[in-house]
């Protein structure tokens, strides 16, 4: 079964054209070429055009939305293909042709040039998976806490208002972690939005999950159409086939048409991550973080276990560190909603989140994949 899964991943890697890697300071696109394939590269105003002869990849059209690349399109013709890459402003292009055995590949690195960046030192197309959590034990741990919603965006409303509960719990978690010597970065510390535009708001939060930090936890409160649902659930990034989960994903991604649009974009990222080994390794750690937090919250609160799921939440779509989104209870459940309204219960929840984070960080060194 594991072999089959690996085979599936390898096949997907072999078929992806281009293979995409999102890295600190640059986006890498790798094009696998046949023995007789030729190519030309032309850079225009905000666009990079690659013309290939002797290869017929599948047509593709995808939003990337990395700091360097907006989107790309693969147009396949009779004898070749053209790839249009829409670049963000101030991006430098570096191409190199790699050869190993019978294989050849064109590596296109798109680098931010507006500020000093870490540039790739090796032209290997895919770095070997290297989880962030378990490196230098003396390295400063930095936890990012994202209290969901805020300001004009109340989030779920029931016996409590989501934006107030998420902030209160996050502030409590911050205090508990700081007491243990952990540095904490908050996406917000007051009742405010990061932007009145929900896409920008979520984008700014997501940007804080960068590789200088150790892990990212978004805290949310749930609601259900009736008022019977209750319990705690934890998400890591990925796609889902479960339509009941998607309804909630739409809501957390901004609701309405925008929520659906951002969900589709996140799903596109999810499909691409399949061929990004580093991202796959990170998802393993994200799932482990989800399990650790979920177990800790359940044992402290005795709440209903709604499980651990993967789902295309926009705010954790590009995380390069273990990242999860937790739903700590239902605002509109008559019992749970009222519980969330009491400081002592919020303290219990916060303590269990902090405990889970500490356990994850401290076990990082002995974790095996
Ligand atoms: Zn929410």
Automatic annotation (TrEMBL):
<dbReference type="GO" id="GO:0030288">
    <property type="term" value="C:outer membrane-bounded periplasmic space"/>
</dbReference>
<keyword id="KW-0378">Hydrolase</keyword>
<dbReference type="Pfam" id="PF01520">
    <property type="entry name" value="Amidase_3"/>
</dbReference>
<protein>
    <submittedName>
        <fullName>N-acetylmuramoyl-L-alanine amidase AmiA</fullName>
        <ecNumber>3.5.1.28</ecNumber>
    </submittedName>
</protein>
<dbReference type="InterPro" id="IPR002508">
    <property type="entry name" value="MurNAc-LAA_cat"/>
</dbReference>
<dbReference type="InterPro" id="IPR050695">
    <property type="entry name" value="N-acetylmuramoyl_amidase_3"/>
</dbReference>
<dbReference type="GO" id="GO:0008745">
    <property type="term" value="F:N-acetylmuramoyl-L-alanine amidase activity"/>
</dbReference>
<feature type="compositionally biased region" description="Low complexity">
    <location>
        <begin position="115"/>
        <end position="125"/>
    </location>
</feature>
<feature type="domain" description="MurNAc-LAA">
    <location>
        <begin position="206"/>
        <end position="358"/>
    </location>
</feature>
<dbReference type="GO" id="GO:0009253">
    <property type="term" value="P:peptidoglycan catabolic process"/>
</dbReference>
<feature type="region of interest" description="Disordered">
    <location>
        <begin position="112"/>
        <end position="137"/>
    </location>
</feature>
């Amino acid at each position: 079964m594991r072999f089959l899964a690996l085979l599936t991943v390898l096949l997907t890697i072999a078929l992806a054209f281009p293979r995409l890697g999102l890295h600190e300071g640059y986006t890498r696109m790798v094009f696998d070429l046949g023995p007789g394939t030729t190519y030309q590269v032309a850079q225009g105003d905000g666009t990079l055009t690659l013309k290939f002869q002797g290869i017929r990849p599948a047509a593709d059209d995808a939003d990337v939305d990395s700091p360097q690349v907006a989107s790309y399109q693969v147009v396949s013709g009779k004898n070749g293909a053209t790839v249009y890459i829409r670049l963000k402003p101030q991006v430098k292009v570096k191409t190199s042709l790699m050869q190993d055995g019978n294989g050849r590949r064109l590596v296109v690195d798109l680098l931010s040039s507006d500020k000093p960046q870490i540039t790739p030192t090796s032209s290997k197309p895919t770095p070997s998976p290297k989880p962030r959590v378990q490196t230098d034990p003396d390295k400063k741990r930095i936890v990012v806490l994202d209290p969901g919603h805020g300001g004009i965006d109340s989030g779920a409303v029931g016996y409590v208002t989501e934006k107030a509960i998420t902030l209160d719990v996050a502030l409590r978690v911050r205090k508990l972690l700081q007491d243990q010597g952990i540095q904490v970065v908050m996406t917000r510390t007051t009742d405010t939005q990061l932007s009145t535009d929900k896409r920008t708001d979520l984008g700014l939060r997501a940007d804080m999950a960068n590789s200088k930090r150790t892990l990212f936890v978004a805290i949310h409160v749930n609601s259900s159409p009736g008022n019977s649902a209750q319990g705690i659930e934890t998400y890591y990034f990925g796609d889902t086939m479960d339509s009941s989960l998607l309804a909630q994903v739409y809501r957390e991604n901004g609701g309405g048409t925008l929520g659906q649009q951002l969900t589709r974009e996140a799903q596109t990222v999810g499909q691409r991550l399949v061929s990004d080994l580093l991202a796959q390794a990170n998802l393993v750690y994200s799932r482990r973080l989800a399990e650790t937090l979920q177990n800790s919250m359940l044992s402290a609160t005795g709440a209903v276990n709604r499980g651990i799921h993967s789902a295309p939440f926009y705010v954790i779509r590009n995380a390069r560190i273990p990242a999860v989104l937790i739903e700590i209870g239902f605002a509109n459940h008559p019992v749970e909603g009222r519980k969330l309204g009491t400081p002592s219960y919020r303290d219990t929840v916060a303590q269990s989140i902090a405990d889970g984070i500490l356990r994850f960080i401290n076990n990082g060194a002995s974790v095996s994949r």
